[in-house]
Every structure is written in C-alpha cells, then in structure tokens.
Amino acid sequence: MAGTRVLFVKLSSLGDVIHHLPAVTDLCARRPEVRIHWAVEEAYADLVRLHPAIEQAIAVPLRRIRSHLASRSAWHDLSAARRNLGRHPYDYVIDTQGLLKSALVARLAHGARFGFDRASAREKIAARFYDQALPVARDQHAVERNRRLVADVFGYEVDTLPDYGIAPPPSAPSWAPPRYYVALHATSRADKHWPEAHWIELAKRLAAQGLVAVYPGGSAAERNAAARLAQQSPGAMLAPPMSLVEAAALLSQADGVVGVDTGLTHLAVALDVPTLGIYTATDPALTGLHGGPKAVNLGGKGLVPSVDEVERALGYGSAPEAEPEASSESAPVDPDPAAG
Asked: Most Cβ neighbours (<10 Å): which of 3, 52, 115, 284?
C-alpha cells in the first residue's frame, strides 16, 4: 500500500533549511509510513538528500532566475521543478517557511496545503494561500516553530530534543589535517563578524593544544579573508573550494567548530559536532545554535565575546577572576573594527 505522501516547502537559506531537518525526523518517528518530498533551492538539494527519510529533493532555481533573468537553463530547470511538483498528488503540502515565494511554490503542488497563520508567518500574505493556517508562537526558536507546525498538522506532541537526522560522509576530505577545528569566520553581514585579531589569537592558543585551524571561504572576498587569517595563524590552512556535502564531511570529523552566525555553523550542530556560535548582532535565543549540550551560544545583539570567553567555552583557558560588578565579558560592538 502506498504511504502517505508529504511535500515540505522550505526553500532557503542554508540555516533555515537546516532548522527544518528535526521536523522531518519527528514525523518519520511518529508516522514511519510517510513518503517525504522536499522543495528546496537547488543549492541546498544535496544537503537535504543527506537525510535518509527524504525520498525526493525537488530543486527549485528561484535564486538563479532572480540573478540571471535571461538564462534559458534557469527557466528550463524551473519548468522541470514545476513538473516534479505536479507529478504526484500529495496528502499534505506543508510550507514551513511562511513567505510569499514559498506559499506560491506550495500552490504548484496538488494536495491540501498547510502553513503558519497571519500572526505566525514571516510574511502575513503567505497565509492566504493555505487551506489550513495554524498558529505557532513566534517567541520560540526557529527549530521548535518548524517542529510545532508539523506536529500540529499531524496531531502529535513534540517532547524530545531535536534530532537533525542527516548522515554525513564517513570520512574527512583527504586534505584535512589529523586534528583540526573549523573556523567559520565568514558571514553575509559585516556586523556579524568577529574581529580578525580575535580569530588569530584564538588560533595561537588552540595551536598550543595541538589543534590546527581550518578556514573555509565561499566568495572571493571570503576566500581572501580566509587566506589572510590562515597566513597569520600558526599551522593553519585555507580550505579549498567545497560543495556543501564536502563541507559536511569536513565539519563532521572536526574536533570542534567555532563559527559566527552563518548557515555552516548550524550545519555543524546538525552533524552533532561540538560547536560554539559567536553572536554579535543577533539574538541567539530565536535563531542561535539549537541542539543540546554540544551547541553553545556566546554573545548577542550588540555584544562581542572575548577570546578568553571563547577559549573557556571550548574547554581551555583558566576561569575568570571574580568580578562582582560584571555580568558578562562580552564587549559592546565597536562601530569601527579597526579601532582598538
């Protein structure tokens, strides 16, 4: 007998896609007969396929079309995605993104559509496109909002720690050093950066513990920054360009990961690697690292964690001297990173 067909729509970004993975694991544990498809931006399709419960990842090239409107291949691939979305009738079409674009993608599929209600969705207009719009409190972490929405659709309770469920490649890339940590220094917003001097100082301290820093970088600017950091960090290396699956292999075999507010830091948590998130411009309570005791958040909006604080959170360094008047070592964000 054919199982219940479910289509999830969570298109982007990388962190948002990762935050939906525990909802997939929850559903499979409670409804093992389900057959799950997932509509996702093409850049993240291979990552989605690392979850063993995903029968089909439907790659949707919206970003490529937005940046290359005249690209015939992009429009051809969008037509293929539309055909894939309409190929099977679904018992449930669930948009856990709550944006107009994700709601419109959900409309391309045949089946009852579910999503956040107007008060819960990130874009209120998205709720107009669902057959059933459900309330989910906005003061929860994004992972728990996704889990709650899916649980409410299927009528079960969420009462476990999040399990991201993805199976990484079995070994690190051949070029990776024997013992290393991954330093995820790059992010899309300048106010989310941790000062380069802090990265270099941390690398010096961890090198004394036998850990080599590996600095990845995607764009040309990120790779230039990674090369600069690697050159000034003892024994460190610049990672070569990688696919997301290769990055997952690198992260999964690391002794630990230190990262700013970026998607790869959340991927490290999903891979159950000890991960420390550095936050300087956003509130980690809603979108920070979320995955049990191996995931640690430091800093917050308007705060920059110190090197000492990061070193101690990683299990190295000495305890701070008692300072009755101080509640945190994090310093206010300096609007001029070159100063001080």
From this structure: 115
